């Protein structure tokens, strides 16, 4: 019997090649989207699972509650003292290592080459805590010596063209620890490059005590590096963290008292534990004061859920398309179903027959989807920033998941058409009296759902594009174009370097202006009795004109006023507003400059400019002159002279800093990098909207075919009575346009709600314009009309004699 089912199924699918191809393509697209989403989801959750100490490997977290504001901040790090103290006093802690790095880069010199390497500083137990494959060297002793360094395989090949490099010497350019050590470092190991799914990425590992030559910190209130611990398998994490907090309470008493005396508030600090495998999706790093805790590649779980949701939408739409086309095509087989019933077939056998056909189509679509996924994976990786390989990701668990999905898809797409067709009575079928109850309300409802999802994605795409265009074109308060940004690498005396570059580049005709400034850090400013958190930024007199930042009041720094360097500050409008100063020029402020509180006078107020992302509101800023923290270089070049200015800068840079690596960026490109994730998701949603409308067209085609098939005699009678082709086309199209309009009305409030929620992540955002909904509505109606018109015109132009001959 099963052989007979297969034979009939293949025969029918071959006879209905057009509909079979449409169904297969629609399902294949949906399966590909779901496959990609699952691969993305799986890859996001594969981070750090390779460490052998899992699930007993944790990172110590610090939660700070500021008593004066009750703000709660949780970071993924500690200071330097917590790790050793916890290891000594908590028996459940088997091993630990501290990591300082992630955003730290060093210019490393070896074999007459200089490389800009991502460096992390770790304790000697690093290889006992983490599972990184040491290709050369002893993992037990590789980091025991203060002058030891372990480099990655790729770094070894860049320096020495091989990995047999144990004993070779390396130097660091302008590094304070290296200068204090007074001798070259020795390569003690070569480690395999960290896997792509590792939260810890590095090019070189240095001993933690080597870093402490220049920076040793005993403050229990600090949290800036990562402390990772391995607990006893039987340890209770709640008891362990309670012991951490007791140790902190004992050791921090004096520091808390001093902090209260200096700043007037008493921070409350508690410690927690975070599983290593949870870090990637909850990095607790950037933006929370722990950018040097070793963790990079942090992500947000909402992205994988969004991807799964969009893929599920598209697959569901493809299944709807399959159902509608199957019903439309299967109505031709009603007589076959009736004869089979008269011949003795049960309803169950007819259902199995149709399910068998659905299974064959789903299986073919699944195979095609695997091929399409393999072909499109490079594009997908580029779009999402991943490095997924289909062969590596497709394991037994994933295969089982897709087998179950295939079975569910077969039931979803095949059962309803099979149930409808097997339920017709033979007498009604053979005399052409069968009808779909309610004029196929179920199928029409599915089309409404289809188009609602498609219109939702189209509106999301348009809003996304409008917001990103707003970000690209918004006036930032300064001119970001024709600006080169680089920095003076290393710990060195900036002043002679700055003087040399000023003299050297001042003669270059392609360069309009040169400025030196600091990166900026947030600290407290006191104005009268008000304390304000503001960004402190060291600048020179050329910074404002280089970036074309306009003054709202007062004046710029000037060499004509020697007191500017010691007494003057420039603030932004946000600072004036936060301070509540009516007449800011001449007002006195106390700022913390290099941990020293100094009273200064406001000499100028600049217009607010965006020195951060548009996701965040402009914060108060105070700018002052200083020679001590001006490592950033900003160059304004003449229009069209980009190449000449870059070459001149590189030549001068290498002349004064021959052992440093010259790296530069264009400011407008740096600004764009802040929104890479949003740009990627704009493309993802655009692709999803295009695919959803393509699948909708297939679904409408099936429903249009069903409608014209049911009304073929009605159309013939209307033509005989004098109806024109345009009238009949309008009649047939009206029903479908009603469905599209219902879908549009359903999608608009849902899309408006969701996209307004998304826009709230931006402090500076658009208001959703009316034209977004107009374009979405017109596009949906136009696509529907184009899809429907083929069937409608074909039915309207058919010879009525053929359709009425049997009456």
Any descriptors?
50% helix; alpha+beta; single chain; 807 residues; six-stranded mixed β-barrel
Biggest β-sheet description: 6 strands, mixed, barrel
Helical amount: 40-55%
Strand arrangement, major sheet: 4-5-10-7-9-8
Mean pLDDT: 84
Distance between the termini: 38 Å
Beta-strand content bin: 15-25%
Instruction: Tell me the structural class.
Output: alpha+beta
- Could you say which overall geometry the principal axes of the C-alpha atoms support? globular
Chain-wise SSE layout:
Blueprint: H1 2-15, H2 17-44, E1 57-65, E2 72-75, H3 82-89, E3 93-100, E4 105-110, E5 113-122, H4 126-129, E6 134-136, E7 148-152, H5 153-160, E8 169-172, H6 176-181, E9 185-191, E10 204-207, H7 208-211, E11 226-231, H8 237-251, H9 253-263, E12 268-275, H10 301-330, H11 334-342, H12 347-384, H13 390-393, H14 396-422, H15 426-430, H16 441-473, E13 483-487, H17 494-506, E14 511-517, E15 521-527, E16 530-539, H18 543-547, E17 551-554, H19 563-567, E18 568-572, H20 573-579, E19 588-593, E20 596-606, E21 621-625, E22 632-637, H21 642-656, E23 664-666, H22 667-673, H23 676-710, H24 712-720, H25 725-759, H26 770-796, H27 800-804
Parallel strand pairs: 5-10, 7-9, 16-21, 18-20
Antiparallel strand pairs: 1-2, 1-11, 1-12, 3-5, 3-11, 4-5, 4-8, 6-9, 7-10, 8-9, 13-22, 13-23, 14-22, 15-16, 15-19, 17-20, 18-21, 19-20
What does this protein look like?
With 807 residues, the chain is α+β, with helices and mostly antiparallel strands. Helix content is 50%, strand content 18%. It contains 27 helices and 23 strands. The strands form three sheets. It has a six-stranded mixed β-barrel with strand order 4-5-10-7-9-8. The chain has a six-stranded mixed β-barrel with strand order 15-16-21-18-20-19. A hairpin with a 2-residue loop joins strand 19 (588-593) and strand 20. It is globular and about 100 Å long. The two termini are 38 Å apart.
């Amino acid at each position: 019997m099963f052989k007979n089912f297969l034979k009939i199924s293949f025969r029918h699918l071959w006879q209905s090649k057009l509909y079979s191809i449409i169904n297969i393509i629609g399902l294949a697209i949906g399966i590909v989207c779901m496959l990609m989403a699952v691969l993305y989801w799986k890859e996001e959750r594969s981070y750090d699972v390779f460490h052998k100490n899992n699930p007993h490997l944790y990172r110590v977290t610090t939660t700070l509650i500021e008593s004066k504001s009750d703000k709660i901040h949780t970071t993924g790090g500690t200071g330097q003292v917590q790790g050793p103290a916890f290891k000594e006093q908590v028996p459940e802690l088997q091993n630990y290592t501290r990591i300082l790095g992630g955003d730290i880069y060093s210019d490393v010199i070896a074999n007459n080459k200089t490389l800009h390497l991502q460096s992390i500083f770790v304790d000697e137990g690093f290889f006992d805590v983490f599972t990184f494959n040491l290709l050369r060297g002893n993992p037990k002793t590789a980091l025991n010596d203060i002058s030891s360094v372990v480099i990655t395989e790729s770094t070894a090949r860049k320096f020495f063209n091989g990995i047999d490099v144990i004993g070779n010497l390396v130097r660091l350019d302008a590094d304070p620890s290296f200068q204090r050590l007074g001798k070259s470092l020795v390569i003690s190991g070569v480690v395999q490059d960290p896997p792509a799914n590792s939260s810890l990425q590095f090019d070189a590992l240095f001993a933690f005590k080597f870093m402490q030559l220049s920076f040793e910190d005993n403050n229990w209130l600090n949290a800036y590096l990562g402390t990772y611990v391995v607990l006893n398998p039987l340890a209770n994490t709640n008891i362990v963290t309670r012991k951490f907090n007791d140790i902190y309470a004992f050791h921090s008493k004096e520091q808390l008292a001093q902090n209260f005396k200096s700043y007037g508030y008493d921070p409350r600090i508690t410690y927690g534990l975070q599983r290593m495998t949870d870090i990637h999706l909850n990095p607790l790093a950037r933006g929370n004061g722990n950018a040097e805790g070793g963790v990079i590649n942090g992500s947000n779980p909402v992205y994988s859920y969004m991807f799964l949701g969009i893929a599920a939408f598209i697959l569901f739409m493809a299944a709807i398309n399959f159902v509608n086309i199957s019903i439309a095509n299967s109505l031709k087989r009603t007589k076959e179903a009736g004869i089979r019933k008269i011949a003795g077939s049960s309803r169950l056998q007819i259902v199995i027959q149709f399910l068998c056909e659905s299974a064959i189509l789903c299986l073919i679509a699944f195979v095609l989807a695997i091929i399409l996924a393999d072909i499109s994976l490079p594009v997908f990786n580029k779009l999402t920033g991943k490095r997924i390989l289909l062969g590596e990701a497709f394991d037994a668990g994933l295969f089982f998941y897709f087998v179950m999905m295939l079975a569910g898809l077969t039931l979803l797409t095949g059962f309803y058409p099979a149930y409808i067709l097997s339920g017709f009575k033979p007498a009604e079928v053979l005399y052409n009296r069968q009808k779909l109850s309610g004029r196929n309300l179920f199928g029409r409802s599915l089309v409404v759902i289809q188009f609602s999802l498609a219109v939702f994605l189209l509106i999301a795409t348009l809003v996304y594009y409008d917001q990103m265009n707003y970000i690209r074109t918004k006036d930032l308060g300064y001119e970001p174009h024709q600006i080169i940004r680089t920095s003076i690498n290393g710990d060195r005396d900036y002043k002679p370097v700055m003087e040399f570059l000023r003299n050297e580049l001042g003669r270059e005709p392609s360069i309009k202006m040169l400025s030196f400034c600091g990166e900026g850090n947030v600290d407290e400013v006191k104005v009268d009795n008000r304390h304000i958190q503001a960004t402190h930024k060291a600048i020179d007199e050329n910074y404002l004109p280089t970036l074309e930042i306009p003054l709202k009041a007062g004046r710029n720094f000037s060499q004509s006023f020697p007191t500017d360097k010691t007494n003057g500050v420039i603030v932004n409008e946000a600072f004036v507003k936060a301070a509540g100063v009516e007449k800011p020029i001449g007002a006195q402020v106390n700022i913390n400059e290099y941990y020293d509180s100094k009273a200064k006078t406001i000499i100028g107020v600049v217009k607010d400019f965006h020195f951060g992302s548009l996701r965040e509101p402009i914060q108060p800023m105070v700018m002052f002159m200083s020679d001590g923290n001006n490592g950033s270089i900003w160059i304004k070049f003449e229009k069209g002279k980009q190449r000449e200015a870059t070459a001149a800068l590189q030549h001068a840079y290498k002349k004064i800093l021959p052992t440093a690596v010259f790296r530069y960026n264009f400011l407008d490109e740096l600004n764009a990098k802040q929104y890479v994730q949003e740009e990627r998701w704009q493309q993802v949603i655009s692709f999803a909207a295009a695919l959803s409308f393509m699948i909708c067209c297939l679904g409408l085609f099936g429903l249009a075919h069903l409608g014209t098939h049911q009304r073929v005699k009605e159309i013939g009678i209307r033509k005989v009575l004098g109806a024109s082709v345009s009238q009949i086309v309008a009649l047939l199209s009206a029903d479908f346009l009603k469905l599209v309009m219902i879908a549009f009305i359903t999608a608009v409030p849902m899309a408006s709600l969701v996209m307004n929620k998304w826009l709230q992540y931006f402090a500076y955002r658009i208001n959703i314009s009316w034209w977004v909904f107009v374009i979405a509505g017109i596009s949906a109606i136009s696509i529907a009309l184009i899809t429907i018109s083929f069937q409608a015109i074909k039915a309207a132009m058919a010879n009525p004699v053929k359709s009425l001959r049997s009456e």
